[in-house]
Amino acid sequence: MLLLSGGLDSATVLALAARDGWAVHALSFRYGQRHEHELARARALASRAGVARHVTLDIDLRQFGGSALTADLPVPKDRDADAMAQGIPITYVPARNTIFLSFALAWAETLGAHDLFIGVNALDYSGYPDCRPEYIRAYEAMANLATRAGVEGTRFTVHTPLLTLSKAEIITLGHGLAVDYGMTSSCYDPDAAGAPCQHCDACVLRARGFAQAGLADPLLVR
């Protein structure tokens, strides 16, 4: 079971899972995000990878708000590394990874699957608390306490192959796996056609990663 946002990181995890022979069921979410264009990228990536099944679930987190991605709040732009390292940004969606992993866990249990894949990263992660190693360990422990499969002795594992990699290392890894990053979307505030703003934190981190990897971002090459 693989969480597929349509972004750079999840595309890399998908390529890793395919390389390693996993029969991937991919799960995406239409949760009221302002960057919903990423879902078209997720569909294209899933199709290209030939996943066993790709499901997009609708859960409207705009009902709660609390994030620049799900409410009428400005997305921070042109922040430097020091600014991004301070605190938790307004683009944090409350409990998002917990919500997403819970749906993935439920689907996995119905399939008899015991492995969840998520592209969280503890280095270039913009301060999100649900991207930390201790969070993943805690969620995995909870999954094995809260499910019939776990109680009956089948252990769930949350796989985080990108957890300790820099964005440049992730891009280099994906490049070696022939990931077409031109098919991905990272921007928090794209225009109506899906073009990246190139100024939000996600765009800045992506650009820095490609520069440090010594590669051109195919999304920006015309």
If you had to describe this structure to a student in words, what would you say it looks like?
The chain is mainly alpha-helical. The protein has one domain (2-213): 3-Layer(aba) Sandwich (Rossmann fold). It is built from eight helices and five strands. It has a three-stranded parallel beta sheet with strand order 1-2-3, sandwiched between helices. Strands 4-5 form a two-stranded parallel sheet. Helix 2 links the parallel strand 2 (25-30) and strand 3 (53-58). Helix 1 (8-19) runs parallel beside helix 2, helix 1 (8-19) crosses helix 7 (167-176) and helix 7 packs across helix 8. The longest helix is centred in the middle third of the chain and has 16 residues, at 96-111. The radius of gyration is 17 Å and the shape is globular. 40% of the residues are buried.
What distinguishing features does this structure have?
single chain; 222 residues; mainly alpha; Rossmann fold; three-stranded parallel sheet; two-stranded parallel ribbon; 8 helices; 38% helix
